[in-house]
Amino acid sequence: MKSIELFSGTGGLALGLQQAGFAHKALFEWDKDSCENIKHNIANGYPGVRDWSVFQTDVRTVSYDGYTGKIQLVAGGPPCQPFSLGGKHQAYNDKRDMFPEAVRAVRETQPQAFIFENVKGLLRKSFSSYFNYILLQLQHPEVVKKDIMTWEDHLALLEQHHTAGHDDGLSYNVVFRLLNAADYGVPQSRHRVIIVGFRSDFNASWSFPAATHSQEALLYSKWVTGEYWEEHSIKRPAEMPLSAQQLRSIRRAVEDTDTPLLRWQTVRDAIGDLPDPTDLSKAMLFNNHEFRDGARVYAGHSGSKLDEPSKTIKAGAHGVPGGENMVVLDDGSVRYYTVRESARIQTFPDDYLFSASWTESMRQIGNAVPVKLAKAVGDSVITQMKGLVDNG
């Protein structure tokens, strides 16, 4: 299944979708450092990217003539700053809103399906009308906004087209869901909106993949069986943080099911086998595992706990205000995640390299889609597509 990707960043979504079986024909990204990082991995022979064609460009200038009817999937993560909880929340008034370009790519390439990712701020109540506008554009990409129209005018036109039940022209059946990456084996609490559409003539019958991991299973392994502590050769803490009622609820959730889930993965699961980065002789054996000094704790700024999923890895333009790029060690001290540790939290493979400075690499990693989450969604989409082709 051939695909193209917009707003590729440093390649998290692309890696996951490729692991699911999609073959990327082109990746488009305007940020020079992100493009250089992918090219660095290509030059170093990373097997997952050696056939990628990466184009550093403004997607508004891209012509899709050579891809129309020749690719099966369009994917990407349109810049999220217009909708981010930490941003200025300007949405359609923000020039960084690239959803119109995502719609144009769908309109001009006419793929069988698309996958777009964004921050959960997209679902904020104040953006509800605009989010509905985004969905209607993706459902009816050939209903194009004219230059003289406001977005509200275009929304009204789309609503009229949609309610009239037109079945001619290019259209997509679109669904979305807010997913927590931790529910799919990513050692991080990271909520993202995933939008998936199938071309309406494709007769798809698809739903989002079921969760594979759960918080209840993690709590069960800690406070019922104690297996979590045994796995890590750690003495079980003496203090029980859960009430008897909570324990009973957890037991029911885990024991009274025919389809038990795996436990959420923790920071310790992800990075516990990496050496202390202050031990240079050992740390240098791992790529991107250099220590960075200066981590501090203060009100509202604390690190991630080792025995919980990490806080959401973020890319702050002026630092990370919640301390999401720090980890709390067993002795209570804190330090910054190394680049490799952050990459593991985002489920990048260890042999996928980051060639820039700590600050720039952390920005790229913080902006990325967790590879394992991308693969989970990609697996379900490509299974549906292949099944429809086989039955066609």
Mean pLDDT over the full residue set = 91
Number of strands: 12
> Which homologous superfamily in CATH is the superfamily of the largest domain?
Vaccinia Virus protein VP39
Q: Could you give the order of the helices and strands?
A: EHEHEEHEHHEEEHHHEHHEEEHHH
Structural class: alpha/beta
CATH architecture of the largest domain: 3-Layer(aba) Sandwich
Strand content: 5-15%
Q: Structurally, how many domains make up the residues?
A: 2
- Main beta-sheet strand count, sense and barrel state: 7 strands, mixed
> What is the alpha-carbon Rg in Å?
22 Å
Description:
With 392 residues, this protein is an alpha/beta fold. It folds into two domains: 2-210 and 368-391, Rossmann fold; 213-260, no CATH class. The chain is built from 13 helices and twelve strands. The chain has helices spanning 12-20, 32-43, 99-109, 128-139, 151-163, 215-223, 227-231, 244-255, 267-271, 280-283, 339-345, 358-367, 371-391; strands at 2-6, 23-29, 54-56, 73-76, 113-119, 172-180, 191-199, 213-214, 262-263, 304-305, 326-328, 334-336. The strands form three sheets. It has a seven-stranded mixed sheet with strand order 3-2-1-4-5-7-6, sandwiched between helices. 41% of the residues are buried.
